[in-house]
Specification:
Length: 386
């Protein structure tokens, strides 16, 4: 009888384990339609302003890159287009799924446009960086604060490279009043820059994580965002820094190596988060990295099997890619992200982003053992009559 009661209690606890869903999404140029000036310095956001905005034509003339100059002159980014862009992001995040507990955003301009998005999605809380990036690009984290999810602190970290880039956002939380969790949101220097710059970004992330773990060995850490890193980078920031001494594990690789994940699901996984058409190449630029505390199967933990590159049909399109086999020309169909088109005049034509989002779940046990014991009142023994 005791064994049955114990089994029931275990099943009860497992059934009540709680889940936090995490999504990371490079939304591709979420700008408002106003000229951004931060601390007296003008941002180079001219492409994302109305055609007749004061100072736009003069700024476009100074653009050295021929393609970017034409794009700057031709663009007419208005508030109605901002609304279409926001609406499409809302569709990606919530159309076929529940609102994530954490939503990391990459390529956002400022707090104003993030706040507009947060209100449409239903978030009351967010954090955003104020980076030195010359275009005004930042990263943000939207989250559902509540009795089980409380913000403790926030910080941002400058990446010391030769050209101003995005800061790394750090936000610490307390989950269920007992599990510390630090979230990092990243947007590392682009692949047009030297590989060593991304190594510097990795060093900042790794060193800060080590500081946190030294102060609290029980700290769970998850780093996400767009890391702009591919396999042939040398030196490679993951291999030389993040994986060193098992500091972090890549959750996509953990998913592929997991024995409890059906092989069919592994084969169905999207080949990457970003498709580079000129080389017919899929890249996983977007990642979740977790430290050992999130992978030990105790308390707050990553559900590795839940990892997903999220690519619903409505945010994809077919690309016809010419390939050559000897002397024969073939046409290959690639299902790729339906990228964002600034000059589209309708919501349907505007597209979404050149990246797919990634999703994973965190789980933690509800404190039910004590609760169950408290609810199980001791039986009163009848007093024997004398």
């Amino acid at each position: 009888m005791k064994m049955i009661a114990l089994l029931f209690l275990c099943l009860f606890i497992n059934a009540e384990a709680k889940t936090l869903q995490v999504m990371s999404y490079n939304v591709e140029n979420l700008f408002d339609a106003k000229h951004d000036v931060v601390n007296g310095k003008e941002k180079k956001d001219w492409t994302f302003l109305p055609k007749e905005a004061p100072g736009k034509k003069e700024a476009c003339r100074q653009e050295k890159n021929r393609h970017h100059k034409k794009e700057c002159f031709d663009s007419d980014w208005t508030d109605s287009k901002v609304e279409m862009k926001l609406s499409n992001i809302v569709d990606v995040v919530t159309k076929d799924r529940a609102l994530p507990d954490f939503l990391a955003l990459v390529e956002v301009e400022n707090a104003d446009v993030v706040e507009r998005l947060a209100k449409k999605l239903g978030y009351d809380n967010f954090e955003i960086t104020e980076s030195p990036d010359e275009r005004g690009i930042d990263v943000a984290l939207l989250y559902k604060a509540g009795k089980d999810l409380k913000k403790v602190s926030r910080a941002e970290h400058l990446v010391p490279v030769d050209y101003p880039t995005r800061n790394i956002l750090e936000v610490e939380f307390l989950i269920d009043n007992k599990y510390p969790l630090t979230v990092f949101v990243n947007h590392w220097p682009s692949l047009a820059n030297p590989d060593s710059w991304r190594v510097k970004a990795a060093d900042i992330l790794a060193n800060r994580t080590k500081e946190l773990l030294k102060a609290n060995p029980k700290m769970s850490v998850i780093a996400m965002g767009d890391f702009n890193t591919i396999d042939d980078n040398d030196p490679h920031p993951f291999k030389t820094v993040l994986y060193k001494d098992n500091l972090f594990a890549d959750l996509e690789q953990s998913f592929l190596a997991a024995k409890n994940v059906d092989e069919k699901l592994k084969k169905e996984k999207q080949p990457g988060t970003y498709y580079f058409a000129p080389k017919d190449q899929w890249n996983s630029l977007d990642h979740f990295f977790a430290n050992g505390e999130l992978l030990d199967g105790k308390d707050l933990d990553v559900d590795v099997a839940s990892f997903q590159i999220y690519a619903p049909k409505f945010m994809t399109h077919e690309l016809k890619k010419k390939t050559y086999d000897g002397e024969e020309k073939n046409i290959k169909i690639v299902i790729a992200p339906k990228r964002f088109e600034t000059e589209a005049s309708t919501k349907e034509a505007m597209g979404f982003s050149d990246h797919f989002p990634i999703v994973v779940n965190l789980t933690y046990p509800e404190a039910l053992v004590k609760k169950a014991k408290a609810e199980k009142k001791p039986e009163k023994k009848e007093k024997k009559k004398k």
